[in-house]
Each structure stands twice: as structure tokens, then as C-alpha cells.
Amino acid sequence: MAASRRGSRWTRAHAERLLWRAGFGASPKEIEFWAERSRERAIAWLVHGGRGPHGTRRMVGPAPRANGKPLDPVNEWGHDMLWWLDKMVRSQRPLQEKLTLFWHDHFATRDQDAPLMLAQNRKLRQHALGTFPALLRAVTTDPAMQSFLSLVDSEKSDPNENYARELMELFTLGVTGGYTEHDVREAARALTGFKGNYRQGRPLTVSYDAERHDDGAKRLLGQRGRLGWQDVLRIVVDHRSHAPFLVAKLWSFFITEPLPRATRKRLARVYVGSHHRLAPVLREILASPALYADLGEPRMVKWPIVQLAGNLRMVGRGVDTDDWAWISDMMGQRPFSPPSVAGWDSGPAWMSTATMRARFLCATWICREAPVAVKKGTVDPAWKPAEHVERARAATGRPWTSPATDRQLLALARRFVSAKVKPGDAVPQYQAEITQAALRHLLLSGPDACLC
Amino acid sequence: MHCDDFSRTESQRRSMLARPVSRRRLLQAGLGATISLYAARAMPLARALEAGEASAAAAPNARALVNVFVPGGLDLLDTLVPIGSYGRYAELRPAIKVAEPLALGSTGFGVHPALGQGLDGGLKGLFDRGRLGFMPGIDYANPDLSHFNSRHFWETGVVSLNPAPGWMARWVDRHGDADNPFQGLSMNAGLSPLLRGSANPVAAVQSPDAAQSWVPGVWGEWQDRMMEHYSAIAARRPSAPGPAAVFAAARQSQFVARTLKPYVKDPRTHADPLAPPVAYPGGENGEGTNGFAENLRYLAALLTLPLGVRVATVQAPGDFDTHDDQAQTLVNDLGQVSQALSAFQADLDARGVADRVLTLVWTEFGRRPKENSSAGTDHGAGGIAWVMGTHARGGLLTPYPDLNVFDDDDNLKVTVDFRAVYASLLEQWLGTGADEVLPDARSVGRVALVA
User: Fold this and answer.
1) ipTM of this model?
2) What does the pLDDT look like over B313-346, one tens digit per residue?
3) Helix (H, G, I), strand (E, B), or coil: what is residue A301?
4) Counting beta carbons within 10 angstroms of the beta carbon of residue A21, is it exposed (0 to 12), middle (13 to 18) or buried (19 or more)?
């Protein structure tokens, strides 16, 4: 039985959960749009695209700018990540964008020239919801990846094992995937032959030179032959460890609950049965009841870039400053610069006193500009505490908060509007504005805002 | 270009640490003895956060251990030059040899001239005054030449690829406090792996200013009140690991901010209440040292305040993975290390806290004695570490490896196990048992390193 037919309950909280996990959050209107429809339709839109809250438009919102100018992702510091952040904020294919981030973490590459990194990013996006073998081919032949993991110019006289090892350990089979050092060496031999075409000492493109390839007999994961690079990719993808490894990694990207053994088997079957297409597995995962567990107490720590993009998306603000580049770095995640080939440590590892303070700073940067900044004259001193809280929620895109947090927000509103005000006197305008500013900030900077 | 392995370094550690640390894994890592510590994680923290301040104030003169990590694998031979066997040294290093090392008295050894840079003769000056003890040949048996693996061993204090909390994190769990994050201080935005994985709180701090919060449109006492509500929100203690980490970080970051608030720079004059009494390289902002000098100067200040800092970590700038052009790299990067560390020591002196601070400087491995064809050296064994401070035992504390007898991979023979140094620091400096933190403490020997 398909998981999508189970658990038919569908509320605003379900829609909100799905849009955060499968995307970068959403504006209140977008959440309402899906809450009024069904889980199946929301998932179909996420996985396949089509008509959504903004019709069939691919990007919604103002074009990105920094210092009043269009972005220059190749030449300007930080603009590469702003270029991508803009897509996270405006794309109407949020799952495709979220998976592009997943694949960037999975096939983590760094320290390469911006044009190569951007080109790789486009490939990840293009294949994000396609088939894994096509994605793996694109990554394996990608100049940025080849250069990062020393595959380019690895030739028969001296095969470099770097890519071969990561291909099995991190990309397809997992560290306990059942391959040996011998397999690494044999795969490295089979992967020889790529040649870099350089300009000013940097590989711009990669071509294949059969002369440099070791065409001798090899034995890889039990298969023999004069294996070449495409054989290596086919063999690792067909290996019994691959499907369970990949579906488990995908699961844990979307769901914090442990993956039950039976579900893992089922997901692996779906994946293999569809000839390694990603969409069927994703449909299953997104429909899984575990994704909607604990709606009143979210357990996933938002990735820093997800919180940042989500803040902008929720409040309907575009990318308008390059400050996001250093703020995201302080929060612990700079896209295009993963700490290593193994990507980022996520979950509780995102948090330290310093990164938490940076998430607070992120809220500050949201609250200092339109549309969240408190505009003079827009706050009515007559608002009662509860209305203050409600207005602040509306101004910040209605982020999730726990009942305990709600009580604190109300307590703050009561305290702020009544401070130094004699009974019967009017609340000064500035005091009402401070109340709004404090509430809006807390809604975006508190611990609740880090979870989804 | 980096060696391939260098790019792998972080990665492998991450893929490894991403695995959950189960009781079984801890046992595999030989940490059975410290297992009881992890039970503490599940217990609710009963005391109020403010108790941290009390605990810090209760032992104002407690000793502190500072760990400085020099990344990449610092070369022994060119750092501590064997003048007594200069001929053999020159034979091993025809292209890159240090032509004019600064002799260390009549020891038969000299240091790279860059170590003479800095206040009062730099690190060489500290050695001359008996405040610095070199430990040549430091490593472990059957050295692993991967940056990642070796670093992981040093970080955890266990020669095993199994995941484990950092060795300083384990000390914090054993001897720290349930409330005071300053006890384990990482002077970087991210938490050092040495401090990662503790149940007791630790902090990552760059400066008092960086720890503060700024809220547009909310100032002065209004902001203080707002942050009281932030703290009240953060007081909740969810049990799932993700939310638990988020709420703990919120509480602790607010505690750190509140505690450091009196020490932020004056917003108008930019006067720094923690301004150092000595000059650090790069001027006030430590320019050109990638934050190292700034990290050290704030660390010196925080060690002086009654915060209860017991263990701290800092990462040195530069990349000592000198596969090529080693000579030039050492001139620049060792010079920065010497200038910043000697300023740090002079600062501690001037602030009157030098007597309770000991610094260990370490790197993940040594380098091959014979230079390579690109004027550099490849990964090797038998590296270098040193202790510095008013209570450091000066001199050469461990035997220098024999330059004529190499191991099977043409590397120097290891003369001291780094865990012997860790065990000695725990016992001789922090005054706590070694085997409660280091599973191999009994078998690794000791080095007298405190005077």
C-alpha cells in the first residue's frame, strides 16, 4: 500500500511542515493555499511542478540585487551564494531547489573557480529530481568535482584514488558498504583517462583521452573486465549497498525519526524498481506519516541557509544585500563552501553559542528592513497586548511558536505597553513601536524559529 | 596545491562523527571507564543558569590549559634545527635547510629565525627564559599519515577511528560544571573538535562584541527586558536532540552575552575595556593574522575575568602542510605564530595571570626528514609540540629523533606519545586523574613538563 493513502489528516500545520521540510518555508498565503487542498496535490506539485499558488510561474518576487546593482556571481565576493540564495527564496520548484542543496552537500565540492562551481550547481539542479545514474555521470565528469577530488589528469601510470574512494564511501555505498581497499584501487584504475583543458593553470573543461586510460583487466566489487569509468558508475549503482544507502540518506534529510528497516526496504525497492529514478522515492518519503510527526514540537534543526532563505520567503522579501553572505557564514553554512567533501554536519551539530548568536543576527537583518521593520505611524498605541502579538505574527509571516513561547510573547506585550504608563493614560507611540519591534524580532530569533 | 589528503581531512572526520555516539562505540573507543559521564546528559539540569557565575567566582585562581592547534603538520627539522648534526641535516634538506638557525644556548639545537620574531625575543626569548619546553619526536606508534586520522586522534586523545567526544570535552564533563559554558572556551565561531560532544556546556566566543545582540528599534533597558523574555523562552528543555541543542545554545549564548556585556567596546569612542597591555601583531584588530592575534588577546582578557575558564582552544593561522615551498611558508607563518604567542604570554604576564595559565601548542604530525622534489616535505612522523608558560618546564623535554635511523617509510622514529603529554598535563597541571579522561593513560608514560 502506498504510504500516501495512509494518514489522511491534512491541516495548516501539515502543509507548513511539508513546505519547510521539502522547501524553504512559505508565506502564510502559500501555506493556506496548500492547506485548502490535499497532501497528494501538494506533494505532486513539489515533485513534478505544475500549477501552484502563483500559477505556473517559475520565480516569484523581485530580482536579486546587492548594493543597488544586479548580482555578479562570477566576480563579486559572496555573489555566488546570493545567486543561489535568490533561487531558494523565489523558486516555485522549492523541492528541486532543496534537493540541489542536498546534492551539493552529498557531492560536496569547494575551492574551485566560481564559473565551475556555478556550472556544477546548474547540473545538480537539472538532475535533482531526475535519475541518480544521470546525476552521477554529470558529477563524475564535472570539472569542479574532478579538480576537487583529483580525478582530472589521473592517468594509468599513476591512478589517483581520491575520487574512487569518495565515490564509494560518500557518494554511493557508504563507509560500511562492503567495498575494500582493493576495490578502491581497481576503481581508480578504471577511472583514469580524464584530461583537463587548462587556461591559466585552471581546468575549464574535461575531455577523455583513451591513451591515458588503463585499459587492462580489473575486478571491481566482484565484476571483472576491462572496466572503464562508465562501468564503474554502473557497478556501484547496481551494488546491493547502494539503494539502502541512498534512500536512508534522503530520508534523514527530510525526516528526523529513525528509518524503520521495513520502510528502508520498501524505499529501496521503489528506487531500484523505477530504474533509480528519484521522484518515486521522494513521493514516498514526503507522504510518510513520520514526516508529519510531532507537529506541535518540531525536531529538525533548520540548516542555516534554510532558516535564512525561509525568513525571506515567509516575509516576502527578495535578496537585496550582500550581507547575507557573511551572516550565513557566521551561522555556520556558506553555500559553495562546504567544510569538506563530506558536506556539513547537521542536526544538533549546527548549534554552538556563536552560531546561535548568528541566527539571532539574521533575524536582526530581517527586522531592520522592509517589510518587517516597524514603519513609523503603522502601529496603533491603542492595540491591546494580544493584538500586538497578532500584528507581529502577521508582519513576520507567521512563524511557528510553541504555546510556552506564545505565553512569553503575550507577557512581553503586556509588560511593554504598560511600562511607565499610568492607568488611564495613553501608551506613547514610541512605546507601541518598541513593543512591535521586540515581538517581531523574538518571533524570528527565538529557538522556535530554528526548528521545523 | 593541497595534498588530496588535506581536502579529505575534515570530510572523513565529519562522515565519522555524523554517526551517533552509542555506548557500544564508546566502548569500542576504549572509553568504557568514562561512560558514566554520559548518563549526566540525560539528567535535567536542576540549577539556575546564574549558578555558572557563582561556580566561576568560587575558584578564581583555578588553573587553565590553553590548546593551540597549528594546522597542517608542522615540520620538526626546520622548526627546531639540529645544529649539532648540521651536516646530516643539510644532507636531508639540501634545498630548504635553514641557513642560520638561532642557537638555543649550548643545547646543540637552534630554532628557525622566525621564532625570534615578537615581543622579548619571540618564542626563542621564552625558551631562553626557561618558559618554553619543546617536545620533538612527538607522535604515536605506527603513525597514520592522514591529516584527518591523525588530527582525530589528537582531538579525542584516543588512537582510534571510532567517534568520541574531544578529550577536553571529556575533561569538562568530568571536572566541569553543569551550568558554566565559559569553562570550555573555543575562541572561534565554531566549536573546536577538542571540546565537541560534552554534556556540560561549553562556549564558542570570538569577542564580547560578537557575543552581543542588536535589535533594531529596541534599545537600552527595553532590550534588556526583551532579552529576559528571550531567556524565558529558551528556558524550556525539550528532550529530542535537535530541539535540546537549539534551546541549550539559546540559553548559553544569552548567558555568554550577558556575562560579557560589560566588556564590549564603547559604541562612541570604540575604547576597548579589554584592551591589552601589550602590543599584538597586526595592531588592534590583529590584521594579517587571520584572527589569531585577536583570538589570543581576547582569550588573555577572558582568562583574567572571573569567568571560570578552565580549558580553551585556539587555531593558529597558516597552513603548515608544506608539500612545496616550505622555506617561504615557514618564514611567514611561523613568524606570525611566534609574534602572536609571545604577545599572548607577555599579556598574561602583564595582567598578572600568567601563573595560572599553561599553553600547549600542537600539530597533527611531523614531516618526512628527506625533502621532496618541490622544495617541500611530505607527511611524516615524529613532529613537534611545546608547552609555554611561567610554570612550563623549559628546555628540550623529549629526545630528538635520530637523523640516521628512520622507520620503514623513511620517517623519523617517534620518541614520545602525545597521550603521555596529555596525561602529564592532566596530572601535573590540572591536578586531575589522567585515566578518567584518557583510556590509555596507564601505558603511555609521562613527561615532566611543569616546573
Assistant:
1) 0.96
2) 999 987 798 888 899 999 999 999 999 999 999 9
3) strand
4) buried
